[in-house]
Amino acid sequence: MTEPAQTLELLAPAKTSAIGREAILHGADAVYIGGPSFGARDKAGNSLEEIAELVNLAHRFNAKIYVTLNTILHDAELEAARKLAHDCHDIGVDALIVQDMGLLELDLPPIDLHASTQCDIRTPEKARFLADVGFSQLVLARELTIEEITAVRAAVPADTVIEHFIHGALCVAYSGQCNISHAHTGRSANRGDCSQACRLPYTLQDDKGQIVAFEKHLLSVKDNNQSGNLRALIDAGVRSFKIEGRYKDAPYVKNITGHYRQLLDEILNERPELHAASSGRTRLLFTPDPDKTFHRGATDYFSQGRKADIGAFDTPTFVGLELGSVTKLGDKWFEMESNEDLANSDGLNYLHKREVIGLQANVVEHKGSVWRVFPNEPMHTLTGLRVGLAISRNRDHVWEMTLNKKSAERKIGVNATFAETADGFALTLQDEDGISATASAAFEKQPAKNPAEAESSVREQLARFGNTDFELDELKVEWSQPLFAPSSLLNKLRRDAVEQLEAARLAAHHPLPRKAAVEPPAHYPEESLSFLANVYNTAARGFYAKHGVKLIAAAYEAHKEAGEVPLMITRHCIRYSLSLCPKQAKGVIGVQGQVRAEPMTLINGSEKLRLEFDCRKCEMHVMGKMKKHILKTPPPTTVPVTFHSR
Q1: Cβ-count burial of 585 within 10 angstroms (0-12 exposed, 13-18 middle, 19+ buried)?
Q2: pTM
């Protein structure tokens, strides 16, 4: 087996097992998916039966399935979570993605554990601790720079896999460090039910009450796109490249998985010392384009350092690509110039004041240099539509039709040897992983009546791998002389050899066991934990106590933080994005010393959030209180739980 340090894993999301299947066919080396409960996307659960089917498909290609068990758990849920872990192990799941350290205190099966990004892994010390307590793969905070990732890689053992998000939606807060949703609605992001307060419009006031920005989506950031940083991330030590999107549809997963499969394959061709983490060659039947599927604009976030343009302040929706501008208005249509082809049922939109107005093109007609668009909506309802207005497309009907059909196939290359035996013929298949299988059949050998065509007939029949997982790379024919081999015999040999090879491949796939924790138990980097450590059950409290933590506060969900606290901690700084950062003014004549990081206030209706700026750490803290009606929520009832033996 190839060492983890030499393999590159493309990790794709799956809302459903059907989408997971498409992810694998489009080139994913691994898929992460929610089980029936305890996943950090509460509306993306799947039954164990569905996951078992996906596991069987994935293992045919030596790909892996990771199940998200990454919410924080209260005591009443520990036993159910423990049972779910055993069920996942029993159906062949390769790893569990975990946030709650209480799970490590339970009687778990020998299943591989990955530390979720919800664990807030930002420092080498935190990463080393998690590696020492038994996590084999660490999902780093999205906010890290290339240099910070390099430092983390240097701090952990060589067999620890560094995983990093390379595409998709970004949580503006450090993952696991956001409690706005729970404070305002009772819906906990740490328990998979975020209300996405970060996507709301806010008015920003300074410390004097003056309006700095009006009705802007100031906590909404663009979507992650690390397409241009893959080589740098590899050099920094990243080996698992994660696509966000367990709520996304199949076209998104197909497109983005295919896009990164192509980029990583280019790198693998350049660097033969590296290998894909699974088997098979992906053949895409379309040209991937990340701009065609949902995004809020693209940013590589903090990978190359802090940038001012990471925000999606105008709208948190998908605007798409600009097509052109309106040239003429009719009573039932409008005309626009565009160098792009339009199609009936395209989704179009335009910006009016601070609102994105969407419409569907019912019928489009190409008239010389312009397109005439007949929208589904009456023209008089399209507020703000005027000559000169820019029009964008966020749903390309032709593109979507392409991705709603078969859009990829994945095949494992095999070398075949057809040979005569003492009593007939045998066909041996050896795949690209070195796994082989042989099928044989007794047959009375007879010289071929047409020797010149005998071998070509054998080659033609044995090359027909059809809908199997395999395709022929090379075929050797070994016989003393051209012999008669009927098509029925050749087809049977091929079918039997394929069946045996499939079974041999599945038998050769062995999920990694759980990594052993170091002894004596590693010490946690700090001796006290605030509510931000998300300790929500007695098992987690026992875990941290065992690892040297002396003061352990309860998670925010325990409702013991009644006052104003940081509801969100983020590396995104509104001051910096609006050019109001003291560091930006440093050295600027006439400005230096005039800009101070005084608190500011975000206002959405009756909600007010105070902003504090920690310039030393370059962080913004969004301060607030829990609503009174949420504080009245009764605590859950505890149930017995099975712990591992000491």
Answers
A1: middle
A2: 0.94
